[in-house]
Fold each of these.
Amino acid sequence: MPRDIPVGNGSLLINFDHTGQVRDIYWPYVGQENHTSGQVCRMGVWVDGAFSWLDSDDWQRRLCYFKDSLITDSTLENSKLGLRLLLRDGVDFHEDLFLRQCTVENLEKNNRQVRLFFCHDLTISGTTVGDSAYYEPEQQALFHYKGKCWFKIELLRGWPGNWQGGLDQWAIGIKDVRDLEGSWKDAEDGELSGNPVAQGSIDSVCALHLDLEPRDQATGWYSMAIGVDYAAVTRISRSFARKGPIVFLERTASYWQLWVTKGDETLEQIPANLANLFRRSLLVLRTQIDNHGAIIAANDHDIAQFNRDTYSYMWPRDGALVAATLINAGYSEISRRFFDFCHRVITDQGFLLHKYTPDGSLASSWHAWYAGGKKQLPIQEDETALVLWALWRHFDRFRDIEFIKRHYRGLIIRAANWICSYVDENTGLPLPSWDLWEERYGVHSWTVASAWAGLSAAANFAQAFGENELSLHYQRTAARMQEAAEKLLWNETAGCFSRSLLPGPDGVYLDETMDASLIGLWYFGMFAPEDPKIIRTMETMRERLSVRTRVGGIARYENDYYHQVSDDIAKVPGNPWFICTLWLAQWYIASATTQQQLEKALDLIKWTAERTLLSGVMAEQVHPFSNAPLSVSPLTWSHATYAATILEYRQKMKELSHG
């Protein structure tokens, strides 16, 4: 199930599903830990003896954000109950405080009392063992806690100068033990037991009562403060009570509106809906980035049902590509923290491993250290090389010499020396590693292009720092790599580059499967986008990877098995991916010589916008027949590629208009 709405501040991330209910609570790192384990924290409504949770089919929903902010603007209407809910949600930009403003509109012609119920189905630090919750009467609040993770939940009604706090009802109960479903079931009759404490596998529910006149509305507030102990959450709630909820919501909206336009050059020549989606993509990107530097791939916990693992990790490749987009958009603070992170985790030998947790620990991996009777490195070489490529883009844009100085030896030179050492002396190509899709072990066109780009970046750095011999060494290694790629990866019979050289029983062979990742050959600069061999490769890619349904788009590669929907490969070579479709648009942009040629790119950009959720969130893939989001949502890489494409489109328009 996609996450339609993420809101966060870089340490606290809250995800909502398509029903408008909370599904993920990540703290103190974005992506680590999830204190719901993907379970829904229900919200329900009782009126006139009838009850409905928000996931009922009786609700009509419109889940959106306010323009250029990370405050939601959601409307849910239930004609059977005669009610409309206006929900404004946000995480304070400074404090780890989640706010929900609930305005209830009475659509009937009589006085009514509406009761809003908020459920907390928590698994603190990923397990229910040892969880505790209690009602505190003096503060009229609920506390959940375990170890150094505390939650304080409060409810509020009224208006500035006349705020009234306190829970009208509450209950804390046992869940998933001895056939007990949890205290949330207690809410469905509109009354809660008032049980004040429980431990272990527990949940809690609290209620806020609002009295409404005919055709009138009333507003209540829900807040959740998170901190390391009782004192921390109490400090946040006191500030909240003193200033009032409106201040926190408005200051957060203003902050993100300022943030998303900080480096914004004119987008007047971009259609308004595409420009809005560009800014939305930047904001969604920011929700997926931890304040300590980790750029997380995705934080949709539902993917865990497939293999008991998630995308909530920092892949250096994804991070480098996202950082490159943010650099181009002017967000140097985020890219600096990302490169600091990479420097902290790089091995002494000079390579980065598969993926990392947001706190910098080595993450889970399916890459083996041993295969075929001998040791092999469990790496994707592009993950090391693209960090150097992105770092040069950062320096070229911001010229922050003192920042680069502290990374020159330990990150740049260390990584570049390792890339030079990890080369086949006979061919000049990199030694085998895993491909960017993490499925095949061999020598891959994307990886070769990445290694070339990383060495070229390192050569630029070495020259800038006056180490000319070292710069020449990197340049020569990269030049030999490029010559080898053109000779060994080009398939004259197929008329295009091959995606990989793979080991076989009789040596290596060319993998002729068409793969969208071949864009790396020109995107990272090893070949020009107008090179005849690149043109033939990209035209072949478009022909063989186009999805021939009403949905359209570009597949990842031929017969892509991941979340595969159709085995009609001629019609559906794979599900359409946002990044792969945008990659084709980026080639159209890079190779365009006239404004008219840019129209092909614009069509694909529009295709992307038309397949985002109403909130502006992009998944990894879409269903080739229904357009429904598939796999994780939002995918950070999708939003980064969209933003990058818009920036490249704008730049090419400028060049052509002045040319």
Amino acid sequence: MKRNLVLFFAVIVCLCAYGQGEIDAYRMSKNDLSGTARGQAMGGAFGALGGDPTGVSINPAGIAVYRSSEVVLNAGLSFNTTNSNWDGLKTKDSKTSFTADNVAYIGTYTLDTERNRRLNFGFTFNRLKNFDRRYRAGIGRMNSSLTDFIASKASQDIDYGGYRPNEWLSSENFNYYDTDQRWLNALGWYGYLIDPNANNDGYVSRIPNVAPSTELTFREKGNISSYDFTLGYSSQDYFYLGATIALTNISYSMESTYMEDFGAQKFYLDNTYIAEGTGVQMKLGTIWRPTDILRLGLSFHTPTWYLMKDYYRGSVDPYGITYEDKGITYDAERVSTPRDARTAYSFSTPSTLTASVALVAGKNAIISVDYELKNYGGAKFADEDGYIDAWYEDNSNKYIKEDLRNASSVRIGAEYRFTPRFSVRAGYAWMQQPYSKDIKDGKINVITEGTAPHYSLEGAINHLTAGLGYRFTPNFYIDLAYVYRTQKDKLYPFPSTYDEVTSTTVTSTPATVSVNNSKVLMTVGYKF
């Protein structure tokens, strides 16, 4: 029977909703190690030091440490290498990109010379995260097929919501938010990847029961940028206060192609996903210098409140897959979601608390440590007006609370000044991942964006850093830094799931993806 491709003509072609879940929440909340060459060379451990745009971004009180005005420009090159291992089949990809992650202006104004009271202000641009990466992975044989996952999801939708993939688009019961991965179900139906089962109470794969060979290519681009406006106050040069209003921008895009080859039959699933948003955040901080040697810092970052827009497009290209209509055999054709599918919503990141300590031995040596705590389970989705209705509370936000935990970051840095002009630096930073044990073990049906079923679980991130600094004059200086970053992720082509209708388990075999990034930075600064 021919299946009309009503996806192109759906009434809801202009506004479509897709589920946002824990993977989206983590991606939009996690920041990279960023800042000036000096700050990154010291592992980003500047929360108690101040006097550098890196420290101002972590702890706004750091701006009050400045005793003169300053202009800072930062640029660098990033070299990213990705190695994937999918059940013994290894692939490698690499990418080089130019970065300009930090620009700052700091102004100082003396209120009282005798009491060393100053009111400082500044503007800082920070590239908080760079999404640019690409990788490809393949496997000789998978235990389950994506068609099994689609059939299982379609069966569950019938069982729980009464929706069939050929009915829900025009159903009077269609709920604006309650779509999850049903677009993927519809692509599977109209692409002739699934059929009703014998009892007509669920779905099964139309592909022969043969373990497929698969390949996934994946490309991400974009960044999270912040424009910080900071005001700081110092008194007696031992107590510092600061506050920041940060305007944040997210620009993210993803393109992927997933292929399964069964020999005589195969299909491609292509996806495009774009997320754009603007947000606002407040930062508060203090630094206390009880002695000339010791500095203590404490800062709090409120959630960033975003207004987001997502754009999606997915398509299935079947090859060698046929169907019959009135006794005539036809080749299945390419089917796509509506071209202008999009959704608008609000999102708030978790808040962040950072405690810092630094030892400053005169003008020669510095040792600094930052500890950061972020509760990723506190991230929340809402509608575009900021209202958290029952659907968000019982779905996206519920999954975030269940699957994401507190995550810590530790940053350690040191600097030694050999001469008044020449300094060397080194550091280390460790960033923990926040996933619960069940999601790490692949036991949870993860909600993914649009019709892209694949997702990546990032591992803990390690940074090894080093750098040099040279003052040409008391006013002009150049800093250099090298940052080496490593992490090991798990890439799932689709979530594992259990089909209660047919009592079968769909198992997704993950690939191990090792990401190594080397970054070379240069900062030019001028004090006046």
Amino acid sequence: MSAGPNAPRSVNHWLVAFAVVVPTFMEVLDTTIANVALRYIAGGLSAANIDSEWVITSYLAANAIILPMSGWLLTRLGRRTYFLLSIAGFTLSSFLCGIATSLDQLILFRVFQGLAGGGLQPCSQGILLDSFPKEKQGQGLTVFGLAALVAPVIGPTLGGYITDNYSWRWIFFINVPVGGVALLSCYALVQDPEYLKEERAKLRKSPFGFDTIGLGLLVIVMVSWEVVLSKGQEWDWFGDPFYRVQTLAGLFTLGLIGLIIRELRYPAPLVGLRSLADRNFAVAAVVMACAFAVLYGQTTSLPALLQTLFGYDATHSGLVLSPAGIFSVTLLPIVAVLLARGLDARWLIMAGLASMAIGNYWLCQMNLDISPWDVVWARVVLIVGLSLLFTPLNVAAYRNISLQQRGAAVGLLSLLRNEGGSVGTSVAQTIQERREQFHLLRLNEFLDGLNPALTEYLAGLRPILTAYSGDPTAPYVLGYQIIDDVRQQQASSLAYFDVFWVFGVVSALLVPLVLLMRRSVAEKGAHLAAE
């Protein structure tokens, strides 16, 4: 194995990969593991169920603020130092979340957790890119893919199992021993490459300049964005009579415009937007954000469908989703081998998007008489698609990014990936609730006394209900109640299937977009070439 010019090879890169991917896995896991436990958290802390959603929103908002700053922070602090501080902060804040005695405390500690954990993804991805020889970077990104893809898949399952069998507090306590081991491992194995040391040495000689205005604009943009996504449906979006959504949307728009102008003109920008000038990176960012919107949107909707309409508890609904993770772990190394043998990354990306579209179309064609295995295999097809595109998308995205821009580019792509998940969750919730009302109204069109099918069905129910209740008048009330229950179930199921249909269309529309990317292949096992 030849040593590259930018990173020391004294430590086996596979040991480094294992060490850095573990804390990243835990950080990504925390974006979904608490979702199934919100009502338990609310009950345990004597808070309203609707207020417990701030446990998720606060974490995502804090995470979103720090992610685009991670490139600036790691160059000034040193990537190793910043990575170790992030692990320590994430572990400590996880412990504080576990011992919180009120919802306000928990939300505050989740903010700390999000701020500390935001540096883990970009740092680990940058470490993997530098630790592996250039011809094996696909393998390094495959290891990162295990954290980025498998963690949100098993998050609801693990969260449901812990909540059902132990306590919601162990959702946070589980990070403490893992974080401690990860901190010691990374302290022993991770080192900064020479180019980062040289860049940091140059920065020390220059006057310290912190983009305070950029930070203020970034906080306004990301907090407004996350709150709108989280509470928009509850507040009726732009129909909000208290103008909360309208105000936040205005702040977001003005803040984003100001942030873009500021960061493109400032000599030492806090957020590295210049990476988007590269065609491969820009297309990869769009595809990555949309792909994770589909993943998180479906990961939210599918357990809700199983729990509300099929009577599954949190553990069993998670078990239906989990087998897809096995296929993901199996497929990611195969994708790395295909990339190393010279297959154009674009074909794998397009195949992955097509598989995601098929998986969602499969789900939207189902009904309430399906078995668990019908859902399992449709979910497998979706996750197989994500496994096919994740590593090739990352390889193609960073192909033309310079080493000096890599830290900022990794942070920006991580931000867009996470925000894609937030958008997908919000879109899924909005579509489900609004389409359910639509389907209820449509089903009502045929439920009247002049419909012979309805009157015949009620007549058939009366003898059964009379024998059951012993009251000759009860069948009239119970019969219509049964009809209403069926109507509600069918409308809700159709709304969930509409969510999957929208996600399938989004996945299919992304396929031709990939053709805008430059061709990325491994030539002679040495490097990636763009043609």
Amino acid sequence: MKLMTIACAVFMTVLCSCSADLSTSSPDGIIRVEAALDASGVPSLTVYSGGDRLMTMDSLGLESVEAVMSHGFSVVDVSRDRVDETWTRPWGENKVVRDRHREMSILMTNPEGVTLTLRVRVFDDGLGFRYEYETGCDSLTVTEENTRFCFAEDGISWSIPGNFETYELDTRELPVSGVETANTPFTFRTGGVYGSIHEAALYDYPEMNLYRCDSLEFRTELAPRPDGCKARVAGTFMTPWRTVQLASDAIGLINSSLILNLNEPCAIEDVSWIKPQKYVGVWWGMHLGTHTWTCDSRHGATTESALRHIDFAADNNIEGVLFEGWNKGWDTWGGRQHFDYLEPYPDFDLERIASYAAEKGVSLWMHNETGGSIFEYEAALDSAFEKYQSLGVHVVKTGYAGGMPGNIRHHSQRAVQHYQKVVEAAAAHQIMLDAHEPIKETGTCRTWPNMMTREGARGMEWNAWSAGNTSEYLCTIPFVRLLSGPMDYTPGIFDIYYETASGWPGREEWNGDNSMCYIKTTLARQIANWVILYSPLQMASDLIENYEGHPAFKFFRDFDADCDWSEALAGEPGDYIVVARRAGDRFFLGAGTDGTPRTVALPLDFLEDGVTYMAEIYADDPDAPEVRQPDGTRAPDKTAYRISQRQVTSEDVLDIVMAADGGQAVVFTPEK
């Protein structure tokens, strides 16, 4: 009887493996995913878009020391689900998000007793899949993830090189077949479809890079732990989602909510203290060399400077002020640095400054640079955050500009655990975070909305001490880096040709040859970047004296970082980008182009029907005079701009005229 039962079970498993429907599609039917098992019991997924094969994800599974997790599987059961619901966020590009998908969960086992559920969710804008393992082991040492992405045909891609320590690398436009390594998001166009490979819900696991192993095939490579293994996990665990966003046009990727939808709902019960903000600070002067982080004659974070910045913020409808270099420890930079997260330098009266900020209704931001010393920072978290909370501080900017101890990689499992530990400690003390040198965003800001924004790319500071960021780069990152989530680029430099200034102490010693150190876009594009480069914590990063009395700074005073709705309206990676956002009853538009002058005829049908708006337009000056550029060439003056006004409705078309490296920004205010 027992033998008959076993034989029957084996027969039913084989029957299920051979006959079960292992396919599912997006709710609109355009995307289709088919699963399969090869002769060795290794799962794969094939993705079709509009009936055409787009890619195959094969060799699905992991390798570990303790269990067989990659092969020998047969299908036991297939379950399905459908979801169509909306959810709301305390902040976001869109505060109301629709989650519409179909799910297929394939339950598999192998002769070694390992159970694998391959969970696949297909949305109208792409798909996600993850591994859910039950092994019977107490713990596992993951040595590899075998996931491979094989494109059906070649195409064009936009990405940064694969790197487990930094994302501050220039973007590249390459044939898919010409990419050797890439970090994600990895954006591509192939077969007439735009797509981007990334991951969602990254917790307690290393980040994923892509390494080419054949002309059109890429294998997953995980950031290693110091001993070479990739992760240590429990015997029952699940991986992050592996995601492929898909769209018929490039802006469809920007407008996708797939990454967020693959994360769990908010884990913070009371989110009333989580509020988007605009901010200023002493940051830019440190990168220019006019100020320092250390307590010397050029110290940036002094009591006098703090009070002046707080007054400026209060007078200009700016909610926050950030101070870097306020705390003891910067003089140890470059050695075995040690930062004190409680003690300010003698010339920074923390209690007085906090009291003055509260009196003026301005949010005081604290900066915690760790230099990569994550163990030291973890030991100080609760005491530091408790102190900040007592001072009325609700925003902390963190930094990890240095090697982590014990050969821990910045993007490895241990680092991911650290970044999340900081997020949760901050939430316990009602503190929002702006993380620099972070782990990349994977939509976890849905679950932990106090994780407001991150750097994670070449930001504005690269313009202060290098050839800087081109207008092409700024037209690329909305389609690559910003697909993962908000970015603290720190935009808005008005003093475009700052390198021509003379007599700035520290300038030469900090930068050496300054001939290429200037902003590579027009002033109008700098303004537009406040809209294009989304961050719920948005900075006006220039020295505040460059804003005082400047007519164009009115845009930032009017701008609202707490938007309700957003949509990318037009654009192509590396060429140009147009984005609109709504905050309350006002709309803000930002547009930018590469080195090619460009005019975009933009229908204003995103405005409310039946409402007349006054459009205040900040544009490049078409009559800008030619001036000598820092590199010796002559070109139209990038500081030249025009401000104009006109009445518009949703039935109008606005011609957005942009100079080379230029842009345009518009505020649409309803007329009463």
